[in-house]
Amino acid sequence: MRGIRKFTFVEPKSERPNVYSGIHIPRTGAVLLATLLRQAGYETKVFCEDIASLDAEELFSADAVGISSLTNTARAGYAIAARCRERGIPVVMGGTHATFLAEEALDYADFVVKGEGEAPLLELLEALRGGGSFEDIPNLSYWSGGRAGRGRKVHNPNRAFVRDLDALPIPDFGLVHGWGKGCITSIMTSRGCPYDCTFCSVTAMLGRGYRCVSEDRVIEELRRYRDRDYVFFCDDNFTVNRRRTKNLLQRKIREGLGMKWSAQVRTEIADDPELLRLMRDSQCFNIYVGFESFNPRTLALYNKRMDVGRIQRSMEIFHKHRIKVHGMFVLGSDADDAESVRNTVHLAKKLDIDTVQFMILTPIPGTVLTEEFRAEERIRTADWNLFDGHYVTYEPRRLTPYELQRETLRAFRKFYSLPRVVGRALRGDKWVALLRLKARRYIKQWRRQNQLFLRRLREEVLAEARRLSAAGRGRRARRVALPKGQLPPTLERFVCSFFRQLGVKVISLEMEGRESLEELAQRAAEALARWRVRVDFLVLPALRPWKISTVASPLLDIPSTPSHAPLLHLPVEADGTPSYPAFARIGMVFTRKVQKVNRAFQSALRELEKTRLPLL
């Protein structure tokens, strides 16, 4: 391998628009690594494609290339890696996606540095330069046969997290290609998070311990950016140690470091008046708060350790201290249905949150939730481009993928309605009005570019109706037959109520004794033939417990004999719960209005809840 003197870093751009498109803020990881390598004598540069386009000539002149990708930029990163490797340039991949899927990343790269990469990357370059072994380099994944022989994939164990963060250099953003006045400066004052939200990969990546940069070092970094109008503290939670945060803000005020700032925080800080006053006095412009939901059951499933009452109280307190709030929500938990999503939007508007992002729950690698979904076979796709929180990539439990996608778009449109943009402008809040206007433009752009995706999701809900039409049974009788006494009483009432609310008549068939399902179906078909009654399908007990992972499987058995009614084996889960996504597909046989089907299902469930009896 040729000597490595020049090392170029790349942060790929997402191939699809998202709420962060156009925000010129590089992640600190690549910039920090570039600064570290420059101190070690290497020539380095960072290309952040959200800031400036990649310079091919500059890229291909590098002796080695490092690519840092999120999950939604992994494919773009792999494409860049392929172009480099075609030219004989070794590629090192890092970032969250490569950390948790090192086996996959090695298919496109020569090396993967997992987790915190400062020391491992330096050790790797020293080994490459001196022809040393890779066996003892922690956090490293590599090919046993090298770049030429490839061989097998080797994954070295990770070393302990970096304890002394002050030993790392201050990131030099001047190394970022295209860095200018309009770019946002990030300052990292800590790593790790003591919380462990089920949808978040931070603790798996950086640990639950909270490791801090010293106060002196943070102030030194702020002094470097004295001429900047704004800085962003990119900690996952800036206020975990409130005493430390107060000390930092007091020193910022005393030293006349007057730039505005923002950071990610939790609602608990609303209970600390001293901290809020210091935030206001130190020019806190806005905060990013992960509210996630106003559904208490969703908050519990996410392990947020937060209650809805505190969220609501915090908004009034933040605004009282003139601190703007960007609320972050994650929609689609197993406790979310259309009503709870709409209630979240309603409360976000009522509480007058300044700006929001409604993200769809996404099973990104490295999270507890992802492992649960994988075990239940609920992840729909491995198209990493879709894993940015804007697309349904898993099977929801109380919504169809189409409804979750549609409700998320509806949430954005409702919150960023034109009257709400104008209202803020009339109040003199031009900054929020401008952001809301940009959000409206983004929503329109997303819809234009994703019409096909939306149509595919809708076609999934219409699958059973399409199958019946293809079999020549498109004409609806608006009747279903239900053998009486073959289902538990409560489940039978649920079925009758569900179809009744859709305007479908349920014909009860008197059947004596307990027979096999095949015999039951045969006798029911004979009875219907004798009575000359035509039904859309015959409802029968489940063959086996329904699993949400099988939601795409056909629900109706359609006989080849036209006189025989199709069979519906009730989609009921092991605990006796009717599967909403499956019932939605059945309901769409009789109506093209998915909201009507949803209302029928929820109404039937409420009737059952009044009985306080189990379904099975």
Describe the 3D structure.
Helix 10 (242-254) runs parallel beside helix 11 (273-281), helix 16 packs across helix 19 and helix 23 crosses helix 24 (594-611). The mean pLDDT is 92. Strand 14 (324-331), helix 14 and strand 15 form a beta-alpha-beta unit. By secondary structure, this protein is α/β, with parallel strands linked by helices. The strands form four sheets. It has a seven-stranded mixed sheet with strand order 2-1-3-4-5-6-7, with helices on both faces. Strands 8-11-12-13-14-15 form a six-stranded parallel sheet. The chain has 24 helices and 20 strands. It folds into three domains: 6-155, Cobalamin-binding domain (Rossmann fold, 3-Layer(aba) Sandwich), CATH 3.40.50.280; 184-459, tm_1862 like domain (pyruvate-formate lyase- activating enzyme); 475-611, Rossmann fold (3-Layer(aba) Sandwich).
**What is the count of structural domains?**
3
CATH architectural label of the largest domain: Alpha-Beta Horseshoe
CATH superfamily of the largest domain: tm_1862 like domain
What is the subunit arrangement here? single chain
Q: What is the overall silhouette?
A: globular
Q: Provide the CATH topology of the largest domain.
A: pyruvate-formate lyase- activating enzyme
